[in-house]
Amino acid sequence: MKRLLIFFLLVLSGCLFDVKPVNLKQLQKETILVTVTGEVEEEGEFELPVYATVQDALDVSIPKENADLSSVNPEQILHDRDRIVIRKQTEEEIIRISINQADLEELCQLPGIGESTARKIIEYREENGYFQSLEDLMRVPGIGEAKFEKIKDMITL
Known about the structure:
By secondary structure, the protein is of the alpha/beta class. The protein has six helices and six strands. The chain is elongated, with a radius of gyration of 33 Å.
C-alpha cells in the first residue's frame, strides 16, 4: 500500500511540476579563474581553460626578469580561484665550487686563486686524495688563513 501511495504521489508531482532532465554539460565549467600577482608584467585575474597549468598562467602574466620561479612547479594543474604569487629574487645564488671535483678553470673563478694556485690545489688533491674538510685547503702552498677566509663561503667538498 505504501509503495502504491508513493508511486501515485510521484506521478502526481510529475504532472504538477515541469520536470526536465538535468543537462550535465551545463553544470561543467569550461574555464577557471586564476589570480597571478607579484613579479609579473600583468597582475590580475585570468580566465584559463580547465586543466590549465601554472605555466599557462605565467604565459599570460609574463614574469619579470627578477622573478624567482624556483618555488613554482610549471606543470602543476590549476583549480578555479587558485592564486599564484611570484616572488622577487632576494639574492643571487651563490655558486659553490667543489675543491674535490673542480677543474683548473672553475678553481680560477675563486677570488685570489690564480692559475698557479689552482694547479697546486689539483696537484695536492691528486697526490693526497680528496680534501676531508674545507680547512684542509690551507695545506696547499699559497693558501693561508686570509685567502681561505675570502673563499670559504664559496667552496664545498
